[in-house]
Design brief:
Ribosomal Protein S5, domain 2, 2 domains, seven-stranded mixed sheet, 11 strands, 39% helix
């Protein structure tokens, strides 16, 4: 039996954090780091999965998936959701290899999901579009794994390019690919403090945002325009700050998309900085080490702006730098970070 392989990238979110589960706007792009999935059909109903990045193999029977609390839940979630939607599978062997760092905020889980679904689509001739793959991957992560994520990560992994920003309306799934200006270089630096979405503070923030929407009488905070921030004064202080982040972040995404179209990098940098301040102070998803990384990046020559990227509580920052400056910005920031914190950051972009 022949092997079938497919891959999918991680993503960096330029701006638009914690807006997707409130049906808002996001602006991610793909990163060079990818996950590759290789599958081979079996003559039984069993799935055997191994990952170069994980110590243990996973074995389970199709139709008998159950949550175990490990990385294999992502694979079981995919076969479970495919079964729920009426897609017929045979057993298969799956081998995974990934260069997307775990817990970095670059969505290693979405890269795994999309790569695996792409490989299964080819192996079993499944009639799935790229958008349907993203939808299935998100439902597997939410309904089976138990991570209450929005659709951004899976849409970015399925549709985004490395030199295009994917301007996405997560309510309608309408999207526009906006080419990154040639005068812009992105820098991504991982704090090496891992995060996870399946529990803890990420879940709390989502619940707080949902409660804020309920009190305001809207289904989603996307429905509160930034011109009506005074409506948030009716909320308890914590919920007011959570709602203010999402409402203003949606507005920043719209401004950032326009700035990219116009190659207006000073405006893009200002929006990066405002987004980070909002995530730090209103949504309270940043941590000290990430704040230090952002501060040090802003001290480098050629930097327009810097912010935490991803769900927070660790992970990476993304920096908007002028063309020709990205390598110096990355090494200067990482060196200063180690001197100040005693921790070693890893440079994910530019690739060395």
């Amino acid at each position: 039996m022949r092997d079938t392989s497919a891959s999918a990238p991680g993503r960096v979110n330029l701006i638009g954090e914690h807006t997707d589960y409130q049906e808002g706007f996001v602006l991610p792009c793909a990163v060079p780091q990818r996950t590759e999935a290789t599958v081979r059909r079996r003559d039984d109903r069993q799935v055997h999965a191994v990952s170069a990045e994980m110590p243990d193999a996973i074995d389970f029977d199709l139709g008998r998936e159950y949550k175990q609390g490990g990385w294999g839940d992502y694979i079981q979630g995919l076969t479970w959701i495919l079964g729920q939607r009426g897609f017929a599978l045979d057993g298969f062997d799956l081998t995974l290899a990934s260069s997307v760092p775990l817990g970095s905020g670059l969505s290693s889980s979405a890269a795994l999901e999309v790569a695996t679904l792409r490989a299964l689509r080819e192996l079993f001739s499944l009639q799935l579009t790229d958008i349907e793959i993203a939808r299935l991957a998100q439902r597997a992560e939410v309904d089976f794994v138990g991570a209450p994520v929005g659709i951004m990560d899976q849409m970015a992994s399925s549709l985004a390019g490395e030199r295009d920003a994917l301007f996405l309306d997560t309510r309608t799934l309408q999207f526009e690919r906006i080419p990154l200006p040639r005068t812009l270089e992105l820098v991504i630096i991982n704090s090496e403090i891992a995060h996870q979405h399946a529990g803890g503070d990420y879940v709390t923030r989502r619940r707080e945002s949902e409660e804020a929407a309920r009190v305001l009488g809207v289904q989603y905070l996307r429905d509160v325009p930034s011109t009506e921030l005074d409506r948030l004064d009716a909320l308890p202080p914590v919920l007011m700050r959570r709602a203010r982040h999402i409402v203003t972040e949606n507005a920043r995404v719209l401004e950032a998309a326009a700035a990219l179209r116009n190659a207006d990098l000073p405006t893009l940098g200002r929006l990066f900085d405002a987004s980070h301040a909002s995530m730090r102070d209103d949504y309270q998803v940043s941590i000290h080490e990430v704040d230090v990384l952002v501060e040090l990046a802003l001290q480098q020559t050629g930097v327009y702006g810097a912010r935490l990227t991803g769900g927070g509580f660790g992970g990476a920052i993304v920096v908007a730098a002028a063309a020709g400056y990205s390598h110096a910005v990355a090494t200067g920031t990482a060196t200063a970070y180690e001197l100040k914190t005693g921790r070693q950051a890893s440079i994910l972009l530019p690739r060395t």
